[in-house]
Amino acid sequence: MLYLVALSLISPALLQQGGSNPELVKMLDSHYGYSSIVAIKDPLREMLAKSLGEGPMLAIGQPWIVTSLPLENLAPGAYADPLDKNYLVVEGFPSGLVPSSSHIRVSVFDRKGAVKAQSLLPTGWRNGLYGARELLVAELPRPIVEVQVTGGMNGRYLAREFFGVDKLRPVLLRLETAEGASLRNTYSSSLEHFRAGSAPVVRKPDVWAGMVCGDNAIQKLEALLWLAGSRSTGFEKPDNSAQAAVLERADVKAALAKLIQSEHKWMKEQAELVLKPWTDKRRPEP
After folding, report:
1. Angle of helix 205-213 relative to helix 217-228, nearest 10 degrees?
2. pLDDT tens digits for 9-42?
3. Are 175 and 161 in contact (CB under 8 A)?
4. For the whole model, what pTM was predicted?
5. Which residue from 40, 41, 88, 234 has the fewest beta carbons nearer than 10 Å?
6. β partners of residue 46
């Protein structure tokens, strides 16, 4: 599915926490499973703007996905009562300007329409934004969101970005080329706008190691993406000390050795990318 919307320029979005909104709940129910091209005057867009703020300045956000988020983490494939849920809403804010960044806004509402969480996530420097869809991915808890992008002038060779949810927090899991190859993210300390997704959570090495070695698939992929990431855009000397402190651990080395033998494509390829040497250049690729 493909969606087209208007221009955007980044500025902070407003967030009003708490409070019920029965009118919004009715609107979310009527748009549940949204999968059509959305008109600019769509009433849900206007209601989301009132609840969350307009989002990136000069942009007209569009609700691309309205789906459910189980109140508790369920095992893959487990049944969930459709009324026992939070709402997950994904809006697109594509940019038609160069240079600039596009964004998606991921918001969680409870059954009363109160805002539980909201994140405005960049797609990375000069990556055009074209659409989003919900996927079912083997061994991963739903929802998994695929965001469709393309590199503009001097942009990257990105085609798809995949997000999951961990305790109401949207998590970038994987970056992909049009051919389906896994890509590194860019974690530059001085040029943060080159990064896709939110800034990495600051964690101690033992916490990162626990994510790599643990059973939470979303956290595992989040950690692998961070460990494989490039620390430089080519304009500065990278600092690899945080990642090195994790990779030197025996338990992490053992976990990576198992993951490169995994039958799960995402786990296997991300682990291989962690172990593959990378060079410092502006457009880091595998």
Report:
1. 120
2. 222 233 334 568 889 998 888 888 765 444 556 7
3. yes
4. 0.82
5. 41
6. none
